[in-house]
Amino acid sequence: MALFGGIEGGGTKFICALAEDEHHILDEARFPTGTPSETVQRVTDFFQQHLRAGKTIQRIGLANFGPIDPVLGSSTYGKVLPTPKPGWTNFDIVSAVETTLNVPVIFDTDVNGAALAEAKWGAGKGLEGVLYLTIGTGIGGGYYINGDVIHGMLHPEMGHILIPHDFVRDPFPGSCPFHADCFEGLANGPALEKRWGQKAETLPIDHPAWELEAEYIALALFNYILTLSPRKIILGGGVAKQIQMMPMIHARVKQLLNGYVHSDLVNEEIENYIVQPGLGDKAGIMGALALAMVAERTKKVKPE
């Protein structure tokens, strides 16, 4: 039986999985993200144990933290592009994994993978126009439409859009090393910790941090709704687990749109329009597996 591998390459942890299909994960391992060499060593060790046992791995999906180059034929395809993560800039992770395992690797961002999985098996199942956002240590987005996730020059960088920043209400300058107070710089986990002096998960549910966080998320969603016109918006990541924010986000998005978008999805059903992941905490690793399982349909198999 041909199996599929998945690698969720996160900025803080990597998860590896081996599966028959989306319903049957046979083995899984997770470990902290270290240097590129030690991380790839642990990744390849996981799959080599199964290859040595005689199992056949058809493809491996690698859903990695960005920025990356997922464009086949590009001179930097398979590499992690300039990143604050020490040691990872220009690292060719695809070649490192493919060369060691001799298994084709399907490469994309972690959020594109999660968008694909949520569209195939999760909260966006059966829909075209599925937007997935992760709001945690970083902020990123993937968009599924016409049977695939979108690419262009590289891949979407939805976490780095500029949104209104009221310095009177929020004098925090932002935490992004590239753009200071972009969406990620104002609303990711590190920004919350730096602004309020404690980790986001330790803040009480009635803390003013959450109202401000909901405001920034709503401002970003306002822009995505008007530019992408998604049929479903899925909010993942650690910060987005703060369920007390969802009613604030729903209300503020409707207020910002001010009746301009004539759709019941926004005006009557917003609680079912902006939702949490249907795959829960598995959205990331299922995204990696989705890249491997649907590679032929999405034409992402690396040419010979």
Mind explaining what this structure looks like?
The protein has 10 helices and 10 strands. By secondary structure, it is α/β, with parallel strands linked by helices. Strand 7 and strand 8 form a beta hairpin. The protein has 2 domains: 128 residues, ATPase, nucleotide binding domain (Nucleotidyltransferase, domain 5, 2-Layer Sandwich); 154 residues, Nucleotidyltransferase, domain 5 (2-Layer Sandwich), CATH 3.30.420.
Distinctive features:
304 residues; alpha/beta; Nucleotidyltransferase, domain 5; five-stranded mixed beta sheet; 10 strands; globular; disordered C terminus
Structure in a nutshell:
The protein is an alpha/beta fold.
Topology:
Blueprint: E1 2-9, E2 13-21, E3 24-32, H1 36-52, E4 56-64, H2 93-101, E5 105-109, H3 110-121, E6 130-135, E7 139-145, E8 148-149, H4 183-187, H5 189-196, H6 208-228, E9 232-236, H7 245-257, H8 264-267, E10 274-275, H9 283-293, H10 295-298
Parallel strand pairs: 1-4, 4-5, 6-9, 9-10
Antiparallel strand pairs: 1-2, 2-3, 6-7, 7-8
Helix pairs in contact: 1-2, 3-9, 6-7
**Mean pLDDT level:** 93
Total count of helical runs of at least 4 residues: 10
Overall shape: globular
How many structural domains can be distinguished in the coordinates?
2
Q: Find the CATH topology of the largest domain.
A: Nucleotidyltransferase, domain 5
Name the CATH class of the largest domain.
Answer: Alpha Beta
Order the strands across the largest sheet as they lie in space: 3-2-1-4-5
Q: Which structural class do you get from the secondary structure elements?
A: alpha/beta
Sheet-strand content, in percent, reads: 15-25%
One letter per element, helices H and strands E, the order comes to: EEEHEHEHEEEHHHEHHEHH
In CATH terms, what is the architecture of the largest domain?
Answer: 2-Layer Sandwich
Number of strands: 10
Under CATH, the homologous superfamily of the largest domain reads ATPase, nucleotide binding domain
Distance between the first and last residues' Cα = 24 Å
Main beta sheet, described?
5 strands, mixed
Helix content: 25-40%
From the alpha carbons, calculate the radius of gyration and give it in angstroms: 19 Å
Low-confidence stretches: 297-304
